[in-house]
Design goal:
- Helices cover about 15% and strands about 15% of the residues.
- The chain has about 160 residues and is α+β, with helices and mostly antiparallel strands.
- The longest helix is centred in the first third of the chain and has 7 residues.
- It binds iron/sulfur cluster (SF4) (3 copies).
- The site of one iron/sulfur cluster has 14 residues, from helix 4.
Length: about 160
């Protein structure tokens, strides 16, 4: 298995594959205006993307319903919103020996548990199979130690 790829611009959930998305998206901003948690922002070229430092995705799909050209497209209720999972980096306080469990308390899926260490502070362990990529853990982390990585094991919309 290769190294995880850190995504440059994270498109909104249920976005088509990048080339198709760019082709279809008219940069109308409707998804940005529709998002109740305000995590969608204009990124390079005016195309929308997700900024998890602003909040989390609730998977309400309001952005999808507001997208007329169907650059965001949810084919059925089971379609995965995206192929990303959170990953905890070296800036983590607990990794550096300082007690912190903020991300575990923020995760609605209980995908981050803390493993007790003999003589040290408990270490976060992220269960990628339980992570939905909602981003709820990212904003509250005091050292911005959490990022999203692509997970190629999650099938998503590829073509229209
Ligand atoms: S699914 Fe809902 S919360 Fe998530 S980006 Fe779209 S509008 Fe925002
Ligand atoms: S919130 Fe950030 S610093 Fe705290 S344990 Fe989680 S990853 Fe580490
Ligand atoms: S992205 Fe969401 S589901 Fe995944 S670990 Fe963070 S809070 Fe939990």
């Amino acid at each position: 298995m290769g190294r995880p790829t850190l995504a440059p611009a994270r498109r909104p959930p249920w976005a088509l594959e990048e080339a198709l998305f760019i082709d279809r998206c008219t940069r109308c901003d409707r998804c940005i205006e529709a998002c109740p948690t305000r995590i969608l922002v204009r990124m390079d070229g005016g195309f929308p993307g997700v900024d998890f430092s602003r909040g989390e995705c609730t998977f309400c799909a309001d952005c999808v319903s507001s997208c007329e050209p169907q650059a965001l497209l949810r084919r059925d209720a089971d379609a995965a919103p995206w192929a990303i999972v959170a990953t905890i980096g070296e800036a983590c306080l607990a990794v550096r020996g300082v007690e912190c469990r903020v991300c575990g308390e923020s995760c609605p899926e209980a995908a981050i548990r803390f493993r007790l260490q003999l003589g040290g502070v408990a270490q976060p362990v992220l269960d990628a199979s339980g992570c939905t990529g909602c981003g709820a853990c990212i904003g509250p982390c005091p050292t911005r130690a959490i990022a999203m990585r692509s997970d190629n094991n999650i099938p998503t919309e590829r073509e229209a």
